[in-house]
């Protein structure tokens, strides 16, 4: 989400994961969402009930709920057919991927959501198909709220319902069906609008650690000019409110990823339109020469972190 400064960004020397900086929003640090300043609807229900914004014209939802969960404990059942004859337990595939402000609100989060959830970048109004080009891609439950280009020139900012006020029935069903969740957001850092930064928050501390560590392993670090920051407990964008949709899971916790505009821009050959993003995700262009590294680094890191999390692992 686009943010306006009202306080000062402070960095704690105590990192929550892998020596990453810990951001705290104390008095005077204001990262107030620009969209929040023009909020017209206090909930999804209020938006959906409005006569001014119509589903299929101004906004849409796409979701999948009910992905089968198979539990095979090969370590305790040697008679089971284990992959590669390894007697190891299978991960519990139970993580939802969310994009509460997709489409034109926080550009790029729709495409990231579908990719991480294991689907192709289907255009609005079509059903995403499983990703068959990536070996081992796992299909997961997902939920997206998207503004449509058909809403232009009408403003899209009033369609921004904050994550803590999300009451969409499908979103609640998707989250309550899963043990864990990862939500994808976009923001414009007021301290440096050109910085490439990922702000990692939420209530699931183990998932936060796994994500932060995975970003570093996949090159989203100083080598690519990317800052990965773990949000402190006082940070406005720390995502730890129990009412936040990402924390409405069966465990009561999830992880929130706030990705700066410039990092999202760098992932796409063409960033300025939905069709451009769908067609050029991870493709280099004169304006985004390192798009493959940024796109695949992000998608692969989140997929890996989720997989480790589902296996019960921790990146301490």
UniProtKB/TrEMBL annotation:
Signal peptide range in chain numbering: 1-17
Keywords: Signal
Coiled coil: none
Stored InterPro entries: Gamma_PGA_hydro, Gamma_PGA_hydro_sf, TAT_signal
UniProt cross-references to PROSITE patterns, sorted A to Z: TAT
Pfam families in UniProt: Gamma_PGA_hydro (PF05908)
Name of protein: Phage replication-related protein YjqB (UPF0714/DUF867 family)
Source species: Streptomyces hydrogenans
């Amino acid at each position: 989400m686009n943010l306006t400064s009202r306080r000062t960004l402070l960095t704690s020397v105590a990192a929550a994961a892998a020596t990453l900086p810990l951001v705290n929003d104390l008095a005077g640090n204001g990262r107030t969402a620009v969209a929040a300043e023009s909020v017209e609807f206090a909930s999804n229900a209020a938006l959906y009930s409005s006569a001014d914004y119509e589903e299929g014209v101004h906004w849409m939802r796409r979701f999948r709920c009910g992905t089968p969960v198979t539990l095979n404990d090969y370590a305790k059942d040697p008679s089971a057919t284990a992959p590669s004859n390894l007697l190891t337990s299978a991960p519990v595939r139970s993580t939802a991927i969310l994009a509460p402000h997709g489409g034109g609100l926080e550009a790029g989060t729709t495409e990231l959501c579908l990719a991480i959830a294991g689907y192709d970048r289907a255009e609005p109004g079509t059903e995403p198909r499983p990703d068959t080009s990536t070996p081992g891609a796992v299909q997961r439950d997902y939920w997206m709220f998207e503004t449509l280009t058909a809403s232009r020139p009408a403003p899209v900012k009033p369609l921004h319902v904050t994550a803590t006020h999300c009451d969409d029935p499908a979103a609640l069903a998707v989250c309550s069906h899963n043990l864990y969740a990862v939500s994808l957001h976009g923001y414009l850092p007021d301290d440096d609008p050109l910085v490439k930064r990922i702000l990692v928050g939420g209530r699931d501390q183990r998932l936060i650690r796994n994500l932060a560590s995975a970003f570093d392993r996949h090159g989203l670090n100083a080598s690519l000019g990317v800052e990965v920051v773990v949000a402190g407990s006082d940070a406005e964008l720390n995502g730890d409110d129990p009412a936040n949709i990402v924390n409405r899971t069966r465990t009561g916790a999830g992880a929130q990823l706030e990705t700066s505009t410039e990092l999202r821009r760098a992932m796409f050959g063409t960033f300025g339109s939905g069709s451009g993003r769908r067609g050029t995700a991870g493709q280099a262009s004169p304006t985004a020469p390192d798009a493959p590294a940024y796109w695949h680094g992000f998608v692969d890191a989140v997929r890996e972190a989720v997989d480790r999390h589902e296996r019960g692992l921790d990146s301490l």
